[in-house]
Amino acid sequence: MKRRLFIASTALAAVGARAQVADLNDAINKAGRQRMLSQRASKAYLALLQKVETRNAQQVLDKSIALFEKQLGELKAFAPSPTIRDTYEALDGAWGNFKRELTTVTPSKDEVAKVVKLDAAVLALANQGTTQYEAASGKPVGRLVNVAGRQRMLSQRMAKFYLAGAMQIDAAGSAAEIAKSRAEFLAGLDILRNAPEATAQIRQELVLADAQWMFFNRGLLRLEGAGASPALMSDVFVTSENLLGIMDRVTGLYSDLKT
Fold first, then answer.
1. Residue 243, SS3?
2. Which residues contact 144 (CB under 8 A, 6 or more apart)?
3. How many CA atoms lie less than 13 Å away from 223 in the CB half-sphere?
4. How many CB atoms lie within 10 A of CB 196?
5. Is 31 within 8 Å of 88 (Cβ atoms)?
6. Residue 231, class by beta-carbon neighbours within 10 Å (0-12 exposed, 13-18 middle, 19+ buried)?
7. How far apart are the first and last CA of the chain?
8. Treating both helix axes as pointing N-terminal to C-terminal, what angle do 82-104 and 109-137 enclose, rounded to 10 degrees?
9. Which of 30, 43, 47, 135 ranks highest by number of CB atoms within 10 Å?
C-alpha cells in the first residue's frame, strides 16, 4: 500500500515538473492544480495531527507547499491580463497566511478550524484564477482541462473532510461536504468519459479512476467519527493519493490536446 502511494506521488511530481507555463491549456492545468494543493496540504496537516501515515503525510505536505509556490510564480508571470494578474496577487497573500499556519504553528485540534478557514480562501482564489484562464482560452478543451483538474481537488477535499470528521470537528458539516463533493466528482467523471475529445488513452485512465474510486468511496462510507480507526484513516489517505495520481494524468492528457 505504501509503495503504491510513493508511485502515485512520484507520478504527480513528474507531471508538475514543467519549468514554465507552456500555453493556456497548461495554465488551466496548473491553475487547477493549485486548488488541489490547498486541500491536499490541509489533508496532510490533519493526518499528521492524528499520526496517520506520518512519514508520507509529511512528504505530501512539504511537496504540496513547494509545488504551490513554484506554480504560483509561473502563473503570475504568464498572466495574460491585469485581471488575472490581480487574482494571483491576491492568491499570493492568501497563500502566505495559509502557509504560515501550516509551517510555523504546531498542529493541534485548536488550530484545525483556522487551517480549514484559510484553505477555503486559497481554494476560492485558485478556482477564480482557473476559471479566468479557461475563459481566456475560449475553447471546449479548456473546460475539460478545468473539469479534469477539479477532480484532483475533490479527491483531496473528501479525504480532508474525512479526517476532520474522524476528529469530531463539525462531523455533520464534514459529512455534508463529502456528500457534496462525491456528487460533483461522479458528475465530473461522466463529463470526461462522454466528451467527444476523450482519446482511447484518456478513457483507459478513467477506467482506472473508476476502480480506484470504488476503494476510496468504500473508505469514505465508513466514516465513524471518533470511532474511525487509524487503519481506516490510513486507507482513505492512501487511496486519495492514488486517485489523485490518476486524475492528474487525465488532466495532463486533456491539457496536451490541441483541438
1. helix
2. 191, 192, 195, 197, 254, 257
3. 28
4. 7
5. no
6. exposed
7. 38
8. 160
9. 43
* Band of residue 6 on the pLDDT scale cut at 50, 70, 90: very low
For residue range 172-202, list pLDDT tens digits in order.
899 999 999 999 999 999 999 999 999 999 9
pLDDT in tens, 42-89: 999 999 999 999 999 999 999 999 999 999 999 999 999 999 999 999
* Dist. CA 227–CA 140, nearest whole Å: 45
What is the identity of the amino acid at 46?
L
CA angle 147–159–112, rounded 5-degree value: 115
- Rounded distance between C-alpha atoms, residue 209 and residue 140, angstroms: 22
Between the alpha carbon of residue 162 and those of residues 89, 146, 200, the distances in Å are 31, 24, 33
Task: State the Cα–Cα distance between residues 232 and 243, nearest whole angstrom.
Answer: 16
Provide the strand spans (E) within 91-247. Answer: none
Grid cell listed for 194: 462522454
Distance between CA 80 and CA 77 in Å, rounded? 9
Q: What percentage of the chain has pLDDT greater than the value 70?
A: 91
Cell readout for 117 is: 478557514
The three cell numbers of residue 246 are 490518476
Among 142, 141, 113, 116, residue whose Cα is nearest residue 31? 142
